[in-house]
Design a protein that fits this description.
By secondary structure, the protein is α/β, with parallel strands linked by helices. It contains 11 helices and 13 strands. It has 2 domains: 156 residues, Response regulator (Rossmann fold); 138 residues, Rossmann fold, CATH 3.40.50.2300. α6 links the parallel β6 and β7. The longest helix is centred in the first third of the chain and has 22 residues.
């Protein structure tokens, strides 16, 4: 009998620590985006928050971000404040490839798991990086522009305007370079005009597109490097009724870009997977916290959306991830 009691006590001693460990959940995970006013970054938050709703016993999600992508200093300040609160993990899309490095280095020194999404940092201060191959995505945009010219019967011999949200942001630089390199390869007679940078501002993006049209007689295409510039380009093409003469291709999706594809003012969008970045980013954080192996880098893919595949269920989920939002 005494032997049986001893065995039971030993078993209880083994079980109790496990129960205590389980009671420590949920773990605090901070998600920091580039801009709270952007639909694209709201889609990232939908993915992250859905993970928290699916697994409330695992993580507790808090979200942060500056109003616009131009507010780099504010994003750094937000990050520094978050690091001081010692969350278990930080999932961040850093607008700058350099400015957030000191704070993220401090986070790792404190044992905070760091998952980066979208933009590559210039120093290895992260546990995993999830992003689109933006150079490849830019090449897809160039190929789709050529295909659209053929469909409209436009000879690829004119000029193309490039409207870019910000200078010095690696993801945008990669998209533009991918577009330029691919266009030079497949349509060498096309003249790619000097890039217009617009501080990720809609009004400036509209003005840039209008100025390019006014100053160049043979524009046959526009490449908008993100949703803001894409929407700006689409407005100009629509207002001037140029959808049969100018092919607009843009990155990402927001309601205005979606309407532009349906109306033909944009011929295609190159979509990333912001929902997946948010969802998988939090999942990777939880796995790392629990001692599980996670990949150092993940390509989250790029998808071309045109009227031809617009209504496919998977495409609709990429166009508007808010349709996946859990109550």
């Amino acid at each position: 009998m005494k032997k049986l009691v001893s065995l039971l006590l030993v078993a209880m001693m083994l079980i109790v620590p496990t129960m205590i460990h389980a009671a420590e959940a949920p773990l605090d995970v901070a998600v920091i985006i580039k801009a709270t006013t952007s639909d694209f970054w709201q889609y990232v938050l939908v993915g992250a928050e859905n993970y928290g709703k699916e697994f409330p016993d695992r993580v507790r999600i808090t979200t942060y971000g500056p109003p616009t992508e131009a507010d780099i200093d504010q994003q750094v300040s937000i990050l520094e404040d978050v690091v001081s609160t010692n969350p278990k993990a930080i999932v961040i899309s850093s607008t700058s490839s350099d400015a957030t490095i000191p704070a993220l280095r401090e986070a790792q020194e404190k044992g905070i798991v760091v998952i980066t999404i979208d933009n590559r940092l210039n120093e290895d201060v992260y546990d995993s990086f999830l992003a689109t191959n933006n150079y490849v995505g830019g090449g897809l945009a160039a190929q789709q522009m050529l295909d659209s010219w053929k469909e409209l019967g436009i000879e690829p011999k004119g000029q193309v305007g490039i409207v870019n949200a910000m200078a010095g942001v690696q993801v945008l630089t990669d998209r533009e370079q991918g577009f330029r390199d691919k266009m030079a390869e497949i349509a060498p007679e096309v003249e790619l005009l000097q890039t217009r940078f617009t501080d990720n501002d809609m009004v400036k993006s509209i003005t840039a597109a209008e100025d390019l049209i006014s100053a160049n007689e043979n524009i046959i295409g526009f490449f908008g490097c993100n949703n803001v510039t894409g929407s700006g380009v689409a407005r100009v093409i629509s207002e001037r009724e140029l959808k049969d003469k100018i092919v607009g291709i843009a990155f990402d999706s927001d309601p205005e870009e979606i309407n532009a594809v349906q109306n033909g003012d944009l011929k295609a969008l190159i979509l990333q997977d912001p929902y997946g970045m948010g969802y998988k980013g939090v999942d990777f954080a939880w796995e790392k916290i629990n001692g599980n192996e996670i990949p150092k880098e993940v390509d989250t893919g790029a998808t071309i959306v045109t009227l031809a595949n617009f209504n496919e269920p998977d495409i609709q989920g990429l166009l508007d991830p808010t349709t996946k939002k859990l109550p």
